[in-house]
Every structure is written in C-alpha cells, then in structure tokens.
Amino acid sequence: MSVINWFEDKRKFGGLIGAFLEEATRSSTSSERDRRINVNANKGLWARCDNRGNMLHVKFPRQSRSVCEERGYHLSMNSMERIELSIDPNTWIPMDEDTTARDVLSFSDEDSHESRILISQEKTGLTDAVQTGIGYPNGTLIALGVMDFHFMGGSMGSVVGEKITRLIEYATQQLLPLVSICASGGARMQEGTLSLMQMAKISSVLQLYQVQKKLLYISVLTYPTTGGVTASFGMLGDIIIAESKAYIAFAGKRVIEQTPRQKIPDGFQAAESLFDNGLLDSIVPRNLLKGVLSEISEPYLSVPYKKS
To answer: Which residues are in the CoA carboxyltransferase N-terminal domain (predicted)?
Structure first.
C-alpha cells in the first residue's frame, strides 16, 4: 500500500491521520517553527494538489513556491506569501493598513456582513481583501497591490476600491510603475451598488495614470480572477500577465451556458486559452514573476521620461 493510500484510509476512518501527524510532529527533528504548526483543517502538515490530488507536505510548497512539482500546478497562496515572493526582503512598506469596511447596508442572509468581515479578519490577519504598498523587486521600486482570495473570496468592496485607488494616486504622484496581483471572485454582493462603483472609481484613476501621465501598469491575473475585477482593473494593464492554468472570467461557465443555451469547451476560461486568443501578453511561472516584473519596470525608472 502506498503512503498516499494509507493517508486516505486513515482520513476515511475518522481523523486518525490528525493524531498521527500530531505525534509525528512532536517527535520530529525539524525546526521549532514547523513543530508549532497546528494540525487542523486550515493549517495542517499536508496539503492536497487541486489538480491531481497529490498529498504534499507543507515544506515542499514552501520550497517550491506552492507549485506542485509533478505537473507544475500552481497552488493557492495568500497575499503575504505573494508579497514575499515578489518583493525583496525587508523592503515592503504597506499603505492604508487600518482601513476597514462599514456595514452601511446592514446586509444579512445566513450571517451578517459585519460578522463575515470579523471572521475573515481573524482568519487572515488582514483588514480587508487587498494589501497595498511599495517595495523593491530585484532593486526596482514599484507600487504593488495584492488581493487575497482567503478574505471573503477576494471580493471587491469599498475598502478594496479605496485602497487600490489611493495606491494608484500615490504611484501617479511619485511616477512609479504599478503592479496589481489579482485573485478575486468579483464585486462584494454584501455592499450592493457601493461595490460596483469601485469598478468605475479605479478605472478613472487608472486613466489618469496611464493616459495622462503615460506610466506603466502591469496586471497579474491568478486563480481565480472573475467578475468586477476582471471587468475593470484586472484587464486594463498595459501588460497583462497570468499564472499557468489561472481561471480568468467575467461570468462562470454555467452562467454563460445558460444564456445562449450552448455548451462551452473545457478550459475555455483558462489562462492558456485566453493567451491563444490574444487577451493576455504572457503566461509567467510563479518562480519567474519577480524577475519579470523588475525587468519590465526598470526601463521606466531609468529613462528620462519624467516631466514636470
């Protein structure tokens, strides 16, 4: 019996795998940090590749930047992991960290919007679904916004719109290249029209940044990028990059099929299909992204294009 099958059997018989891993962790000679990892549903010692179902020890995703080595499948990352991957150590300067959402509509279904925000804040350690700031990829200063799908599905509400708008305005004033790393289910339904307004708000400041100041905006689309983010700043980049096999769409496959009553092919909304049809400029493996961002951005900081 293979190790993977053994783990599957233990999982089926009521969570004995958790007890085994907990005992193995106590007796391990690994670092103290790894020994402190809690064995639970959210922070276990093992992760499963969404593509092939492979069992991966947490050390391997860290070493391989959360890329499954068997087929190169890109696993999920949170915003802090992406910042660490994209920015030189000790150069990240965050902006607007204390900005939080208000439940102005008093929205409630199975749970209230306010409760969902508090749960997501406790789960992720973030105030909302995006982190913004400035930093240096390979010594090149950029303005960077990174969305986090773990916070309410990366939904774009008023705080996400405000933070990204402020980041663009800062990049415009300082004449910095701008990079956004998108991971979102779209506009936040709990904020109604307020969330939809963020699409126009961000697009308008991007127009000043790109057209009037003629500055560089790079959009990086990861799994998933959908809805209002795709329909606004996600697809407005001067250069649009995607990760391999990223799901990129406005509406989901099922919604599209229900409208024209026609079946769309598998992989129709994957990054490779969009690249073949000219919607993307490049598909860049995760471990090369930092170098690509710096190589593209560097000429814009070194040539005499800045005018008063």
So the answer is: 45-308
Sheet with 239-242, side-by-side order of all strands: 93-95, 130-135, 142-147, 178-184, 217-225, 239-242, 282-283
Closest CA to 280 of 228, 225, 209: 225
Q: What is the DSSP letter of 8?
A: H
Tokens found for residue 286? 């995760």
pLDDT digits over 270-305, tens only? 999 999 999 999 999 898 999 999 999 988 777 655
In a domain, 16, yes or no: no
How many domains does the structure of the chain reveal? 2
11 occurs within a structural domain? no
Same domain, yes or no: 141 and 274: yes
* Pair (53, 90) in one structural domain: no
Tell me what percent of the residues of the chain surpass a pLDDT of 90: 61
Q: Is the dihedral of CA 2, 69, 78, 33 positive or negative?
A: positive
**pLDDT given for residue 262 in this prediction:** 86
Which amino acid, one-letter code, is at 46?
W
131 pairs with which residues across the strands? Answer: 146
Quote the CA–CA distance of 209 and 216 in Å, as a whole number: 8
What 3-state class would DSSP assign to 291? helix
User: What is the reported pLDDT for 44?
Assistant: 52
CA 190 to chain CA centroid, Å, is: 20
Please give the full DSSP string across 51-87, using - where no structure is assigned: TT--EEETHHHHHTTSB-TTT--B----HHHHHHHHS
Token digits for 68? 């499954």
Query: What pLDDT shows up at residue 10?
Result: 43
Residues 53 and 171 reside in one and the same domain? no
The whole-number average pLDDT for the span 52-65 is 50
Q: Strands (DSSP E) along the chain, which ranges?
A: 46-48, 55-57, 93-95, 130-135, 142-147, 178-184, 217-225, 239-242, 282-283
Task: Decide: 177 and 215 in contact? Cβ < 8 Å.
Answer: yes
